[in-house]
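Re: beginner question about structure tokens

> Can someone show what the tokenized structure looks like for a real chain? I only ever see the sequence side.

Sure, here's an example I had lying around. Input first:
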Amino acid sequence: MSDRKSYIRTAAKACIVRDGLLLVQHMRDAEGDFYTLPGGGQERGETLPQTAVRECYEEIGVTVHVGALRFVHEHIRKTADDDIHQIDMIFLCTLAAGAEPHNGSAPDKSQIGVTWLPLAELADYPFFPEVLRPILPRYIDASLPFYYQTLQWV
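And the corresponding structure tokens:
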């Protein structure tokens, strides 16, 4: 029997745009600074919109209103020790009236802040996942969800 870990994780992410700016988490790890959408793993008994609301409150300190599903990102990463298969559901969201994002009560361990990036210039920033950089600005106003995948073997 193998000791490899293998699982599928579902997650909900929030895509929040205001005045041409995209709300992101500012992260820092050993490789430097990068940006990502707020959101995270779905918990047992929780709907994906509930996940987005909870994760945003924990990470960016505000209540969001969850709208349409816009992107589905499936990524599979295989390493020597484990297989990670995650499906991110990215919803268009809006902030509650008067809400100003900030580090929430339970930010991600690499999170150093919350900031707004120019959506039209997203490709110029170290934004994760990289595959979303050109897709998000181009298809954010599409009428149907956009599916994309990332496969990585390390």
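Each token stands for a local structural state, so reading them left to right follows the chain. Residues 60 and 102 are 5 Å apart (CA to CA).
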